[in-house]
Amino acid sequence: MAYHPFRHLGLKVVAIALATLLWLSVAGEHVVERIMRVPLEFRNIPAELEVVGDPPATVDVRLRGSSGLLSRLEGTEVVAVIDLATARPGSRLFHIRSDEVRAPYGVEIAQVVPGTLAIELEKSATRIVPIVPPLDGEPAPGYVVGRITSEPSTVEIRGPESRVKRLAEAITEPVSIGGSRERVRDVVTVGVADSALRLSQPQSATVLVEIWPAPVERDVMDVPVRWRNLGAGFRAEVAPGRARVTVRGRKESLALLRADTIDAFVDLAGLGPGRYNLRVQTDPSQDFGVSGVTPQVVTVTIK
Length: 303
Hints:
Blueprint: H1 9-27, E1 31-43, E2 49-52, E3 58-66, H2 67-71, E4 79-83, E5 90-95, E6 101-102, E7 108-113, E8 116-130, E9 135-136, E10 143-151, E11 154-160, H3 161-166, E12 171-172, E13 175-176, E14 184-191, E15 198-199, E16 204-213, E17 216-228, E18 236-239, E19 242-249, H4 251-255, E20 264-267, E21 274-279, E22 281-282, E23 289-294, E24 297-302
């Protein structure tokens, strides 16, 4: 088919007019420079390394382009990139090259400030640490906090080796026990207090907090003070022969406690005739604890 230069003449005229207007609008704008603070992005961090310290989150970039284009430019459209693919442990210097700054078409990167950054890198490490849930509030009056358990009881953390070694425990969201009279169960999120560390995997834990009746104290009067391990052929006298013993435990256990059920004694092992000041001892019990004995010391005469 023969070429006809005047075919679709109207469309060709419109296209030429639009192209001319576009050229005139661009050519009429001045080329300007603008300094913009842009985010800094780390790329290709080796899996066995961690960036430590407090590296800058932004850098200043001097941009060049038409005034209209730069006036419409937003900070998120330009990103400075540091490639850490060849990084090694220690304090290292990295250049931020102009060709590694991402920017829209038509924007030229004239300069990056600073052009070189010192980045501290450290070997990555993992460790298993216990989960220690914090508590919020106090139980109801007359009750105390008992055993606290977490399921799971441990969690794996990850981060810079030096920081991993210093961390003793993982924490959770606070478990509220305010006004409680019975066991509290809560499912909470696990985390770490050190922002340089993280969990190997996001983790929740089920925390059980036992709430027990508060122990009470009671003075048991006239508890006999006996002797033990007296040598053969000797006899002993204890003065005073009775003591006041202060015991601590559950109210129901102490209610039935009698003086003759408490074993208070002095130990005479290896002692011969003479007069001695000896400390009063008590045998342990599963039902109560002894918080005090009066008098603490008695006089023992061996004959």
